[in-house]
Amino acid sequence: MGDTPSSMQHFLENLGLQGSDVDLRNFAVLEVLRFTVNIYPMVFVFQKGEKHLMEMNAAFAELFELTYSPGILDTNQVLDAKPGILSLLIGTFSEKKGYLSHLHYFERIDRLVYVLVDAQIIKKDELHIGTVFIFREISNFVQLETDLLRIDRLSTIGKMAAGIAHEVRNPMTSIRGFLQMLSHDLLDKGWEKQKGYTDLALLEIDRVNELLNQLLLLSKPVEFVLEDVDVNELVKEVAKLHESDAFIYQIQVNYRLAAVPKVKMDENMFKQVLTNLIRNAIEAMEDSGEMTLSTRYEADKDKVVIEVTDTGPGVPSYLNDRIFDAFFTTKEHGTGLGLAICQRIVHEFGGHIRMTSKGYGTTFSILLPSST
Ligand SMILES: Nc1ncnc2c1ncn2[C@@H]1O[C@H](COP(=O)(O)OP(=O)(O)OP(=O)(O)O)[C@@H](O)[C@H]1O
Ligand SMILES: [Mg+2]
């Protein structure tokens, strides 16, 4: 670590630790090192004969879902199941060059992780003896950026959609009214067949109106009523509305509702969110499966979490970023507005919505600040 001692010295001098108190300075240096070594995932890679060896800290093991074990280990053996990080470590080590802040990402069981990697080569008597890798996780920032981009796209689409929906709604209302009058007249005259046609047309118009309502939901500003909402009650209420669907498709519904604080929400909008997620879960399973509705409270973040989990086929990871886009659908008769609306509503109330899926089954989690 060529210039580390001098920059550390500089750092400590800036901290006001100059002077002759060597003990204090050494103590501070050790504390800084201890802090860094504990906080940042690190691994030291070196070579003995043909073998690549490594020594990791507990934070590295945690980040890469490995069992932590101190001491010198065989790199190939430890990282056998992680080809991405294995080739990064060995490739960089072999190049004998360091770098700062290289972006790297990998999949964990629970999430996609983005890290910035620093590689520092270690020399002794001008000989490269190994490379230290330090990792800084930046998944939160990446997620934030993706969310912001999506919100931006959504608000443009939302504005357009709102304009169109608004313009189309009025003529639709008149058409609906005239068709209803026509339908009554036809009934009076006993023209059954023709009345059947107008009734069909009315049903289609109702479908269009429903779509227009959804488009309007996507757009700002929406009027809502803020109240303290008991999410467990709402989850049960909305799930009840889907019981018959679940029954038809042989889907077992499980509840894991914990005692959670109330959240500040518009009840009807929240019902809409739950409805969309539950419908998606049922649609994903088609016939037979399990849907689990759960709530919990994350006290450290003061967040109420509501989850809808299904045992359907899951969402392939290349679609992760697209499913929340308005009009993205993989269903023959889907409009692709369900999740865009969910996201729009949840953001409106200061919350977040996330999807996790690992090949099989999907979980949508809504995180909302508690109202306390
Ligand atoms: N629980 C789930 N399991 C698997 N895929 C899902 C799940 N929920 C959503 N998806 C995927 O995300 C896409 C978008 O969902 P979204 O609810 O926005 O629209 P949709 O269900 O296709 O149509 P709409 O909700 O407007 O009727 C779906 O078409 C599907 O590919
Ligand atoms: Mg849907």
How is the main sheet built?
6 strands, antiparallel
Strand order of the largest sheet: 3-2-1-6-5-4
Gross CATH architecture of the largest domain = 2-Layer Sandwich
Shape: elongated
- End-to-end separation in angstroms reads 50 Å
Instruction: Point out poorly predicted stretches.
Output: none
Helical content band: 40-55%
Q: Name the average pLDDT.
A: 87
Q: Which fold name fills CATH's third level, the topology of the largest domain?
A: Heat Shock Protein 90
Number of domains: 3
What is the structural class? alpha+beta
Number of strands: 13
Question: Cα-atom Rg, whole angstroms?
Answer: 29 Å
Q: Hey, roughly how much beta strand do the residues contain?
A: 25-35%
CATH homologous superfamily of the largest domain? Answer: Histidine kinase-like ATPase, C-terminal domain
Order of helices and strands: HHEEHEHHEEEHHEHHEEHEEHEE
The CATH first-level class of the largest domain comes to: Alpha Beta
